[in-house]
Design goal:
Blueprint lengths: L3 E10 L2 E11 L4 E5 L6 H9 L6 E6 L2 E2 L10 E4 L11 H11 L4 H14 L15 H13 L5 E5 L7 H18 L2 E6 L2 H5 L1
Parallel strand pairs: 3-8, 6-7, 7-8
Antiparallel strand pairs: 1-2, 1-4, 4-5
Helix pairs in contact: 2-3, 2-4, 3-4
Length: 199
C-alpha cells in the first residue's frame, strides 16, 4: 500500500504564510487533484511532497515513514513539471534513461525499461530524436515517461498541460488517466482549471 499522508503540513516565508496547517490522506492507487487559483499554495504543497521545498511544520508520510527532511532523489516520488525540464543535448532515450543510469542498472535492463515507457506514452519510434525536434505534447509525453520509468510510489504532476492548446490538453489528460489506471500509481495532480480537475 503506497499511501501518502500529510499531517499539519505548513509553509511560511518570513511573514508570508503560503500554506496553513493542512492534513490529507491519499490512498494507494488514487488520483487526487489539487484545485485552486494561482498563488493558493498548490505547487508549493506538491514541491513539499516531492522534497523540493521543506515544510515549516508537519509531517509528510509515505507508507507511514516521514520523508519531510529527505532529499528528492531519495524519495519514492517522481515529478512532472509544467516546463517539461528535458535536457536539450540528450536524445529522448537518454532523457528517459537518465535516472535509471544514475541507479546503476545494467544497460540491457535500461534499454528494456525505456522502450516500455516510450511505448506506453505512444512514442516507441522517437528514442533517437532530440527534444528540439518534438512538439509540445510529445515533450510532455517524454517527461511523463521519464518519471514513470523510475517506478515511483507517488507521481506528482504540476500543471503539466498548462502550456498546451485545449485539444491536446484534453487528449493528454485522458492518456495520463489511462496510464495511471494501468500502473495503479498514486498520483497528485495540480491544476487551476476546474474542468481539468473534474475530468
Amino acid at each position: 500500500m503506497y499511501t501518502l499522508s500529510l499531517e499539519n503540513v505548513s509553509k511560511n516565508y518570513s511573514i508570508v504564510t503560503a500554506i496553513e496547517p493542512l492534513s490529507l490522506t491519499i490512498d494507494d492507487g488514487e488520483l487526487v487533484c489539487l484545485l485552486g487559483p494561482s498563488g493558493s499554495g498548490k505547487s508549493t504543497l506538491l514541491r513539499i511532497i516531492g522534497g523540493f521545498e521543506t515544510p515549516s511544520g508537519g509531517k509528510v508520510l509515505i507508507d507511514g515513514v516521514d520523508v519531510a527532511r529527505v532529499p528528492p532523489e531519495k524519495r519514492p516520488t517522481a515529478m512532472v513539471f509544467q516546463s517539461h525540464a528535458l535536457w536539450q543535448h540528450m536524445t529522448v532515450f537518454e532523457n528517459i534513461a537518465f535516472g535509471l543510469t544514475l541507479r546503476g542498472l545494467p544497460k540491457a535492463e535500461i534499454a528494456r525499461k525505456v522502450s516500455e515507457a516510450l511505448a506506453m506514452v505512444g512514442l516507441a519510434d522517437y528514442g533517437k530524436r532530440l527534444p528540439a525536434h518534438l512538439s509540445g505534447g510529445q515533450r510532455q509525453r517524454v517527461a511523463i515517461a521519464r518519471c514513470v520509468v523510475l517506478e515511483p510510489k507517488i507521481l506528482l504532476m504540476d500543471e503539466p498541460f498548462a502550456s498546451l492548446d485545449q485539444h491536446l490538453r484534453d487528449r493528454l489528460r485522458e492518456e495520463v488517466r489511462q496510464i495511471q489506471k494501468k500502473l495503479g500509481i498514486t498520483t497528485v495532480f495540480v491544476t487551476h482549471g476546474q474542468d481539468e480537475a473534474l475530468s
